[in-house]
Amino acid sequence: MAYRHVSAMPNEVMTCLACKPGGIYVDCTLGGAGHASAICERIMPDGTLIGIDQDADAIANARNVLAPFADHIHLFHGNFIHLPDYLDQLHLPTVDGILLDLGLSQHQLETSGRGFTFQKDEPLDMRMDVRTRTRAEDLINQLPEDQLATTFWRYGEERWSKRIAKAVATARRNTPIRTTGQLVQLIRETVPRKSAAKQKIHPATRVFMALRIAVNEELSRLAEFLNVAVERLHPNGRICVLAFHSLEDRIVKQHFKQLSQRCTCPPGIPECRCEGRATLRRVTKKALRPSTEEADRNPMARSTRLRCAEKLAQEGDANGSR
Ligand SMILES: C[S@@+](CC[C@H](N)C(=O)[O-])C[C@H]1O[C@@H](n2cnc3c(N)ncnc32)[C@H](O)[C@@H]1O
Q1: Percentages helix, strand, coil for the chain, rounded to the nearest 5?
Q2: 3-class SS letters over 195-243
Q3: What residues contact residue 234 under an 8 Å CB cut-off, 6+ apart?
Q4: What spacing in Å lies between the alpha carbon of 186 and ligand 1's midpoint?
Q5: How far is C-alpha 190 from the chain's CA centre?
Q6: Which terminal CB of the chain, N or C, has fewer other CB atoms within 10 Å?
Q7: Is residue 158 a contact partner of residue 152, using CB atoms and an 8 Å limit?
Q8: What digits encode the pLDDT tens for the residues 27-78?
Q9: How many CB atoms lie within 10 A of CB 96?
Q10: Closest ligand 1 atom to 58 CA
C-alpha cells in the first residue's frame, strides 16, 4: 500500500536544522520519510541518519524511500524515548541534530484502518505501535466514568467531557463500544445541537484527539524525551520540534525556555545559588507557523508550530569532537 504523507514546513525545518555535510542527524518520527530524505540530501555522501518510528508501516516505507542512502542510515522500530539506547547501540555519544515531527501521518489517519479518524467506521484502536497493549476500545469500555471525563478534558479540552463520559458509561452497560462509528454516533447524540452547530470542528474531534493522546501516552513521553534528547546533542547541535496542538507545544516551549535560562533559583531569592548555566539557545523565540499558501495546499499542516533550539557549548567541552 502506498504511504501517503506531505511533510509540514519542509523549508523552515531545513533552515532551522542547518544540516552540515557529513553530520549525524536523528529523525525521531520518520512518517513518510519526507524530512528524512531532505536531511539525507544535505548530509551525504559521508553523513549518517538515524530514523525512528513506532509504526511498522513507517519503517517499511522509509526503507524504500531512503534506499539510495542505505549504507548511511540506521532505522529503529520503536518509541523515540529509547533514543539513548539506539545511540548507544551505534556507539554514538552525541549527534548534530534531532527532529521531532509529532502527531499522525496522513497514512495513519486515512488508510491505516486503526480508527484514528471519525470520518470512517473502523475498529477503535488508535495505537501507533500495534505491539503495545492498550487500545482506545479498552479505555472507552474499561475506564471508570470520572477518569474518562478527565481524559476527555485534560487531553482534548472537551467542554462536554462529563456529559460524554456519562453517555459512554451508560451505553457500554448494554453493548460494548468497539467502533469509531458507535462512538461518533454517541457523541452526536450527547453534545447539544446548538453547541455542535456553533463549533467549526466536528463534534467528535476533541474526544478522538484525547483518546489518541491517552492510548499512545503522547504528552508524558514527549516531556520524558526532551529531557534525554538535549543531553545527546553535540555542542552547537540543534533540536527542532513540530507540534500540532497547544498541549504539545506548551511542553516544548516551557522546556526550551527553562533550559535557556541561566538561573533556575525560585523567584524572590536575593542572590543566585544554583550557579546555573543555560544549556540551550532558543533559535526561534516564537513558534514558526506555516505560510497561508502551505496551509491551503496541505490542510493537515495548518496547526503546526515549529520551535528550534541550539545546544550551547559548555566550558570543558572538547571542541568539535563527538
Ligand atoms: C507527522 S508524522 C511524521 C512525518 C515525517 N516527518 C515526514 O516528513 O513524512 C509522525 C510520525 O511520528 C510517529 N510517532 C509519533 N509518536 C512517536 C513516538 N513516541 N515514537 C516514535 N514514533 C512516533 C508516528 O508513528 C508517525 O509516523
Answers
A1: 45, 15, 40
A2: HHHHCCCCCCHHHHHHHHHHHCCHHHHHHHHHHHHHHCEEEEEEEEEEE
A3: 94, 95, 96, 311, 322
A4: 30
A5: 30
A6: N
A7: yes
A8: 999 999 999 999 999 999 999 999 999 999 999 999 999 999 999 999 999 9
A9: 24
A10: 27
Given pLDDT bands bounded at 50, 70 and 90, which one contains residue 111?
A: confident
Please report, rounded to a whole number, the percentage of residues in the chain having pLDDT higher than 90: 83
- Residues contacting 178, CB < 8 A, separation 6+: 123, 124, 137, 141
Asked whether 115 and 123 are in contact (CB, 8 A), the reply is yes
Tell me the C-alpha distance between 83 and 183, whole Å. Answer: 35
φ, ψ (nearest 5 deg) of residue 60: -60, -45
For residue 308, the model assigns a pLDDT of 98
Q: Which residue has the cell 488508510?
A: 111
115 DSSP 8-state letter: S
The DSSP symbol for 179 reads: B
- Backbone torsions φ then ψ of 210, nearest 5 degrees: -60, -45
CA neighbor of 151 nearest in space, from 214, 212, 104: 214
Q: What CA–CA distance (Å, rounded) separates 244 from 301?
A: 8
Angle of CA points 167, 171, 177, to nearest 5°: 110
Domains defined along the chain, listed by start: 10-107+218-311 (3.40.50.150), 133-215 (1.10.150.170)
As a whole number of angstroms, the distance between CA 308 and CA 302 comes to: 18
Helix 145-156 with 205-215: angle, nearest 10 deg: 100
Integer Cα distance of 38 and 28 in angstroms: 14
Cell of 313: 557549548
Tell me the CA–centroid distance for residue 288 and ligand 1, in Å: 19
What CA–CA distance (Å, rounded) separates 182 from 204? 11
What average pLDDT does the chain have?
93
Residues with CB under 6 A from ligand 1: 5, 7, 29, 31-35, 52-55, 58, 79-80, 101, 103-105, 128, 221
Q: How far is the CA of 130 from the centre of ligand 1 (A)?
A: 14
185, three cell numbers: 454516533
Q: Which three cell numbers stand for residue 246?
A: 497547544
